[in-house]
Design goal:
alpha+beta; DNA-directed DNA polymerase; 14 helices; 2 domains; Alpha-Beta Plaits; Dna Ligase, domain 1; 430 residues; 5-stranded antiparallel beta sheet; 13 strands; single chain; globular; damaged DNA binding
C-alpha cells in the first residue's frame, strides 16, 4: 500500500520496536471542566452543560463527578436532576471554549508543534526523531499535561495516547481517563486492544458494529484477524482497507478535501416556534451565512433550507443563483424558500431551522459560464453597505446593525461547536 515516506520510515537511531509516530491529546469532559475552571465554587461537584436552560433539553457535557453518579452526555436535564439532587446546570459558552482552546494550543506548541486540530477538545501531534522512542514520547506527554494545568487551568485535565498510527493514538487517549497517558507499541500489538469493545474504535459506530456482528465479528481479536480485503468487503469500500492498516499501526494516505458548503442551524426556543417568528430566525441564519462568506473570502451559488416541525415533520427546499456573497440576494432566496416550505407545513410551529450555502467558490475565481448572466452581477452599493455593516458589528457587537428588524435569539446562534469544526472568534460577532 502506498504511503508517505516521511510517516512510514523511521531513522534506525530512533527505533526501539515501539514505532511511535503520533501523540493524541483529548481534553477530559472539556465543557464541564471549563465551567468548573471559571467557577471555583463548583469545582469537585457534579456539573452538566446544556445548550439552553430547560428541563427538557439534554446534557452536552458532564463532569466526572456527575458521570460517577449516572449522568452522562445525552441525559435529559429532568432525569439528571432526579438522579442528582443539587445538580449544577450551566448553559454552554462556545466563545469561552474557543478562547481556552486557543490557550491550550499555545501551551502544546511550546512542547511540540500541533499537526492537526481534530475538534475543540482533541489535537494530534507528529512525533519525529528521538520523540519516536517510548521514554521521550512519554516525557513529552507529561510535559504537555503539566503546562496546560499550570498555565491554562487546574481543572483542565487531558488524556494522551501515543501510538504508531493516528487511529491507535486516538484509541489510546480514550483508554485511561481522566489525566491518563497510554502508549501502544507496535511490537506489542494487539496487546491492550484486546480488552476493548469493537465500537470503541473511531470509525465503528452502531451501524458498522451491526454489520461486523452479522459476519461473525464481535471481539477485537476477531476484528484484528480479518484481512484487508475482508474489511474492504464489510465496509463496502476503500475505508475498510484503510481501517485495517490503521488498526495494525500504519497510517493510510490522507484524502484532501475542499469546502463545499457553509451551514448554520438553530433549535428554536418555545417563543420563537410559531411560523411567523421562525421566519425571522431563518433570515438571521442566512444573514450570518452571508457575513461569514465575506469574511472567509467565498461566494455561494445556491441556498438550502431545512425545517423540522414541532411534531417531527421535515421539509426542505433549495435554489441556485449566480454566485454571490450579497446578503440582500441571499435573503431574497431565503424568503422564497421559506414560502415554499411554509405552505407545506402541517402544524403551526417550527422546532429547528438549518440554512446551508451551496456551491462555494473563492471570491477571486471566475464562475462557470453556465448560469452566469449580467443580471447576476453583484450590486456594488450592496457590497459597500454590507462591508460597513460587518465592520460595525465586529467592532461594537453583534446585531448593532441588522438587515430588517432584529430577532430575539440566543446569543450564540449559528456559532455552535460541531464535532469537526471550531468557530473562529469573529463568528460570535456576526
Amino acid at each position: 500500500m502506498a504511503q508517505n515516506a516521511d510517516t512510514t520510515e523511521l531513522d534506525e537511531r530512533w527505533r526501539d520496536g515501539a514505532e511511535l509516530r503520533w501523540l493524541y491529546l483529548d481534553m477530559n469532559s472539556y465543557f464541564a471542566s471549563c465551567a468548573q475552571q471559571d467557577e471555583p465554587a463548583i469545582r469537585g461537584k457534579p456539573v452538566i452543560v446544556v445548550p439552553v436552560m430547560s428541563d427538557y433539553t439534554c446534557a452536552i457535557a458532564a463532569s466526572y463527578q456527575a458521570k460517577a453518579l449516572g449522568v452522562k452526555t445525552g441525559t435529559q436535564v429532568k432525569e439528571a436532576r432526579e438522579k442528582i439532587p443539587g445538580l449544577i446546570v450551566r448553559e454552554a459558552r462556545p466563545d469561552r471554549y474557543v478562547e481556552l482552546h486557543n490557550k491550550i494550543l499555545e501551551q502544546i506548541d511550546h512542547v511540540i508543534p500541533v499537526e492537526k486540530v481534530c475538534s475543540i477538545d482533541e489535537v494530534v501531534c507528529r512525533l519525529m526523531g528521538p520523540q519516536c522512542l517510548e521514554a521521550p514520547a512519554r516525557a513529552l506527554g507529561h510535559r504537555i499535561q503539566r503546562r496546560i494545568l499550570e498555565n491554562v487551568g487546574e481543572c483542565l485535565t487531558s488524556s494522551i495516547g501515543i501510538a504508531p498510527s493516528r487511529l491507535l493514538a486516538k484509541t489510546a487517549a480514550d483508554m485511561k481517563k481522566p489525566l491518563g497517558l497510554t502508549v501502544l507499541r507496535q511490537d506489542q500489538l494487539p496487546g491492550a486492544l484486546l480488552d476493548l469493545d469493537i465500537d470503541e474504535f473511531a470509525g465503528i459506530g452502531r451501524s458498522m458494529k451491526m454489520r461486523l456482528n452479522k459476519v461473525g465479528v464481535e471481539t477485537v481479536r476477531e476484528l484484528w484477524d480479518m484481512s484487508p480485503s475482508r474489511m474492504r468487503q464489510v465496509w463496502r469500500g476503500i475505508m475498510g482497507e484503510n481501517f485495517w492498516y490503521a488498526l495494525h499501526g500504519t497510517d493510510p494516505p490522507e484524502i484532501e478535501t475542499h469546502r463545499a458548503s457553509i451551514t448554520h442551524g438553530h433549535v428554536l426556543a418555545q417563543e420563537l416556534r410559531p411560523v411567523e417568528h421562525a421566519r425571522g430566525v431563518a433570515r438571521r441564519l442566512t444573514a450570518k451565512c452571508g457575513s461569514r462568506l465575506r469574511r472567509m473570502g467565498y461566494k455561494c451559488g445556491g441556498l438550502h433550507i431545512y425545517l423540522r416541525g414541532a411534531d417531527g415533520e421535515k421539509l426542505e427546499a433549495a435554489t441556485r443563483f449566480a454566485v454571490t456573497s450579497d446578503s440582500f440576494r441571499m435573503l431574497q432566496a431565503c424568503d422564497e424558500l421559506w414560502a415554499q416550505c411554509a405552505r407545506k407545513l402541517k402544524g403551526p410551529r417550527v422546532k429547528q431551522i438549518v440554512v446551508t450555502c451551496l456551491h462555494l467558490l473563492e471570491a477571486g475565481m471566475k464562475p462557470d459560464l453556465f448560469g452566469w448572466t449580467p443580471e447576476g452581477e453583484e450590486d456594488g452599493r450592496h457590497m459597500n453597505l454590507l462591508s460597513a455593516l460587518d465592520g460595525i458589528n465586529q467592532r461594537f457587537g453583534k446585531d448593532k446593525v441588522t438587515i430588517g428588524p432584529p430577532t430575539k435569539m440566543h446569543g450564540f446562534v449559528g456559532a455552535k461547536i460541531a464535532f469537526n469544526r471550531i468557530p473562529e472568534q469573529p463568528e460570535f460577532w456576526e
